[in-house]
TrEMBL record:
Matching SUPFAM superfamilies: Cysteine proteinases
The protein's name in its UniProt record: Transglutaminase family protein
Domain (Transglutaminase-like) ranges: 159-219
Gene3D superfamilies per UniProt: 2.60.40.2250, 3.10.620.30
Family matches, as InterPro entries: Bact_transglu_N_2, Papain-like_cys_pep_sf, Transglutaminase-like
Cross-referenced Pfam families: Bact_transglu_N_2, Transglut_core
PANTHER family assigned: BLL5557 PROTEIN (PTHR33490:SF12), BLR5614 PROTEIN-RELATED (PTHR33490)
Species this chain originates from: Emticicia agri
């Protein structure tokens, strides 16, 4: 399916402020960027770099006053995510070098503190894909999705104790539980078609059988039509906007629709 995605951020800025943005999807596994537009109002110089996780990042020095960022793209995505219960657990000694960082604890994913919970969830499950699916199902069943009970400091361990959160919290918990079983897992932020209410979304991926698989603990069944914006160890690595000064986000608007026929 071809999706038309768009996002707008409107800021009020007291003084000129350095800002790092992460708003451009890149073509890769499961998605192809057909067309893209990136507008800054007022226009200011932009430089771009690729971070440690392969994400496209834009650096700007904002003006004071009102400042808007508008991005849009048409992306060809998979209608379904791959599901493979035969995908095996990969022993640590056989993991690619770039996967090793994803089995370590990180700021919001204290995998070293959740081993007992993970072990209880997968106690009667075969290794590999079935374990991660058991983790995903447990989170979907046992964690209540509700706004207002978590914040930017909430970690996987916090969510495991409170049993309540939003997509960010569900994903952090999934990542941490996988890592506690020595399964590489990474945090993903992006767009999901027909998400209600519409917003940017978070899910996680696990490395099994020599490749990455998508898991979304907020959903009751596998859903495709996703556009990945960024990957990281946890939410600290995939912030859509990182500011280095005093600026206020006044409005944020997100849309995901079928792309018009050409």
């Amino acid at each position: 399916m071809k999706l038309a995605i768009s996002c707008q951020l409107d800021y009020k800025i007291e003084y000129q402020t350095p800002l790092v943005l992460m708003l451009r999807p890149r073509s890769g596994a499961g998605q192809w960027v057909i067309k893209e537009e990136y507008l800054l109002e007022p226009s200011v110089p932009v430089t771009e770099y690729t971070d440690l996780y392969g994400n496209l990042c834009q650096r700007v020095f904002t003006p004071d006053g009102s400042f808007s960022i508008k991005t849009s793209a048409i992306v060809d995505v998979a209608d379904q995510i791959d599901v493979d219960f035969s995908a095996n657990f990969v022993p640590v000694q056989e993991l690619p070098d770039d996967c090793l960082i994803y089995i370590l604890p990180s700021r919001y994913c204290e995998s070293d503190k959740l081993g007992n919970l993970a072990a209880s969830i997968v106690a009667h499950v075969e290794t590999g894909y079935e374990q991660v699916e058991a983790i995903r199902t447990w989170i979907n069943t046992n964690i209540r999705y509700e706004y207002g009970h978590s914040n930017a400091s909430t970690s996987a361990q916090d969510t495991a104790q409170s049993r309540i959160g939003v997509c960010r919290d569900f994903s952090h918990l999934g990542v941490a539980l996988c890592r506690s079983m020595n399964i590489p897992a990474r945090f993903v932020v992006g767009y999901l078609y027909e998400l209600k209410p519409m917003d940017l979304h978070a899910w996680f991926e696990a490395y099994l059988g020599g490749r990455w698989y998508t898991f979304d603990a907020t959903q009751t069944e596998p859903r495709g039509n996703r556009v990945v914006l960024a990957y990281g160890r946890d939410a600290a690595d995939v912030a859509l906007a990182t500011q280095f000064g005093n600026m206020e986000l006044q409005t944020m608007w997100v849309a995901v629709e079928p792309a018009p026929e050409q």
